[in-house]
Amino acid sequence: MIVIRNKVLPFGRHYYAINLFGVLFAKGPVDAETMNHEKIHTAQMLELLVLFFYVWYLVEWLIKWAIYRDRYEAYRNISFEREAYVNDHNLLYLKKRRRFSFARYLRKRG
């Protein structure tokens, strides 16, 4: 994964890194957990043929924003983010991960 350190992306004080089409933009050094988190997102993207990942991500975020009335809370409860945050500490997760595992996190709340 290509990592680009910069001071612009991602936007917002809560966010440290963003994976855009397999390229990681980070505001500083990237540790193993953050890299694993973003690699989980890359696996999710590939499963949904990239474009559908971003469409689903946006639609789910809008729905969660309407539910929680808080942008950050909505972000943290997106199924893709829930899967990545729960498993980013497990550096072997991607070796055993089943396809479409993010679907398990659709109904759960963080």
Strand content: 5-15%
Main sheet? 3 strands, mixed
**Which spans of ≥5 residues are poorly predicted at pLDDT below 50?**
none
Rg over alpha carbons = 13 Å
Structural class by sheet pairing and helices: mainly alpha
Mean pLDDT: 95
Helix count from the secondary structure assignment: 5
> Residue share in helices?
40-55%
- How far apart the termini lie comes to 28 Å
Largest sheet, order of strands side by side? 1-3-2
Shape call: globular
- Element pattern in H and E: EEEHHHHH
| Strand element count | 3
Describe the overall structure:
With 110 residues, the protein is mostly helical. It is 48% helix and 11% strand. It contains five helices and three strands. It has a three-stranded mixed β-sheet, with helices on one face. β2 (17-20) and β3 form a beta hairpin. The protein is globular, with a radius of gyration of 13 Å.
Write the layout of secondary structure elements.
Layout (H helix, E strand, L loop, with lengths): L1 E4 L11 E4 L2 E4 L5 H16 L3 H18 L2 H6 L2 H9 L5 H4 L14
Helix pairs in contact: 1-2, 1-4
Keywords:
mainly alpha; 3-stranded mixed beta sheet; 48% helix; 11% strand; globular
Summarize the structure.
This protein has helices at 32-47, 51-68, 71-76, 79-87, 93-96, and strands spanning 2-5, 17-20, 23-26.
